[in-house]
């Protein structure tokens, strides 16, 4: 099973109330090959909500208690981000998820890049909290920019592979 960030499947759950719809993500969900999750919504955040960034380090350092996740107003929301990641991991394990395609840039789902903690729109290499937790637990993580037919094929059942091939040919 594949895990997809809910916003990629068309759900308007991003911090600003928008979606980041990806047609392949929608196909995977509607064909029973993926489940969706938003760790921030699962942790109890509202839609819309204040933007948040990892401050003072990396996701790994957040999990070690050496950095924080803060909203733009300075409110420390680290515990909620860690809680959301733990919930996603629990459900991913229960559903035998082996790969996750996550919205890059997010302090939860970023897989290749996240914002640098200054709230000035600058991204740096790194993972979000959920991406880090999933990767540490042997779930292969990809960013939404890596969501391609070639990258999802190894995780599909045989019928879905045939259907997807006929869809794209």
Task: Describe the protein in words.
α4 packs across α5. This protein has one domain. It has a four-stranded parallel beta sheet with strand order 2-1-5-8, sandwiched between helices. A two-stranded antiparallel sheet has the order 3-4. With 169 residues, it is α/β, with parallel strands linked by helices. The model has no long low-confidence stretch (mean pLDDT 96). The chain starts with a strand and ends with a helix. 41% of the residues are buried. Helix content is 34%, strand content 18%. It is globular.
Brief overview, please?
With 169 residues, the chain is an alpha/beta fold. Helix content is 34%, strand content 18%.
Relevant terms:
7 helices; two-stranded antiparallel ribbon; single chain; 8 strands; four-stranded parallel sheet; alpha/beta; 169 residues
- Uncertain spans: none
Number of domains: 1
- Given the structure, what is the number of helices? 7
Basic shape? globular
Fraction of residues in helices? 25-40%
Give me the oligomer status. single chain
How large a portion of the residues is in β-strands, by DSSP E? 15-25%
Series of secondary-structure elements, N-terminal to C-terminal: EHEHEHEHEEEHEHH
Overall mean confidence score, pLDDT: 96
For the biggest sheet, the summary is: 4 strands, parallel
Distance between the termini: 24 Å
- Beta strand count: 8
């Amino acid at each position: 099973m594949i895990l997809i960030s809910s916003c990629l499947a068309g759900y308007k759950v991003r911090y600003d109330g928008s979606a980041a719809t990806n047609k392949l993500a929608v196909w995977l969900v509607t064909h029973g090959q993926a489940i969706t999750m938003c760790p921030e919504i699962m942790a109890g955040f509202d839609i819309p909500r204040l933007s948040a960034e990892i401050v003072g380090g990396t996701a790994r350092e957040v999990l070690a208690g050496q950095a924080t996740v803060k909203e733009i107003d300075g409110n420390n929301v680290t515990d909620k981000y860690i809680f959301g990641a733990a919930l996603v991991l629990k459900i991913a394990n229960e559903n035998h998820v082996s790969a996750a395609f996550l919205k890059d840039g997010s302090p939860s789902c970023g897989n290749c890049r996240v914002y640098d903690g200054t709230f000035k729109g600058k991204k740096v290499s790194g993972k979000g909290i959920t991406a880090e937790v999933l990767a540490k637990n042997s779930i292969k993580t990809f960013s939404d920019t890596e969501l391609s037919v070639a990258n999802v094929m190894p995780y599909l059942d045989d019928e879905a592979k045939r259907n997807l091939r006929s869809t794209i040919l």
